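Q: Hi! Curious about what S-formylglutathione hydrolase looks like structurally. Here's the sequence.
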Amino acid sequence: MELIDQHRAFDGEQRRYRHKARSLDCDMTFSVFLPPKWRSESPLLYWLSGLTCTDENFVQKAGAQRAAAALGLVLVAPDTSPRGETVANDEAYDLGQGAGFYVNATEEPWSRHYRMEDYIVEELPAQLRSELGLRGRSGISGHSMGGHGAISLALKHPERYSSVSAFAPIANPSACPWGEKAFSAYLGKNRREWERHDSAVLLAEHKAPWPILVDVGSSDGFLAEQLRPEALERAALASGSEVSVRRREGYDHSYFFVASFMDEHLQFHADQLTTRP
Ligand SMILES: N[C@@H](CCC(=O)N[C@@H](CS)C(=O)NCC(=O)O)C(=O)O
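A: Let's find out. The predicted structure is below.
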């Protein structure tokens, strides 16, 4: 992989890499923050971003580096979809490039490149292990579409992740307009298939092995129609899972909201990653 950008930050390093992603069959960029004195065992936090984002929105807007440096957390920020002129796309902001929804697509024209679940869960961790020697325990978090990605991927691959949180997640994508549109394009018309990637459905069926921390803003314009955090709370009750959904008065969907509570999420992950068996 090729180092394409590097900045000192809080005595650590904010780096950006480009590499050939086998699972996505295209070149990808991702960002990684290495805290001071990082080691191969340092814990990692994967951050999955939302619609329209690249790896850079989080790096530039979330203000996560100061606390990550203090806590010794490596931050990994992947892009939100495969990229490139030969990669299928759509004019809408909520489908195609910038909107991979963290699933492996089965439908044309998406199935060749849109394999974000394999990329996030398998290929990127293997790349970080082989190229940077990073093999610490991993947590996962994200925003909006990335909050859906974080919770659903962790529930699908519980052996891979030791801590999970989300900001304004699309909690029940098989029952909201963003999710219905993306899942019908990527996964086809069978709603049963959609439910295999739906955090609320997965959580209702299986008790989560870790507590899940969620923040949502009460003034988020997407809250009632697209995010539906109450579905996650109902699911947690049904399975006996520990899910804390905190409603933050007056906050909206933006990275101003994310940045406001980032330190609390990083502390939560650091606690889980360093103290849980
Ligand atoms: N642009 C879309 C909304 C997209 C949006 O809000 N994206 C969020 C994630 S779902 C985001 O993080 N945008 C990039 C940013 O704020 O830096 C719209 O017009 O409704």
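A: A fun detail: Strands lie at 2-9, 12-21, 26-34, 44-48, 74-78, 138-142, 163-167, 212-217, 243-248.
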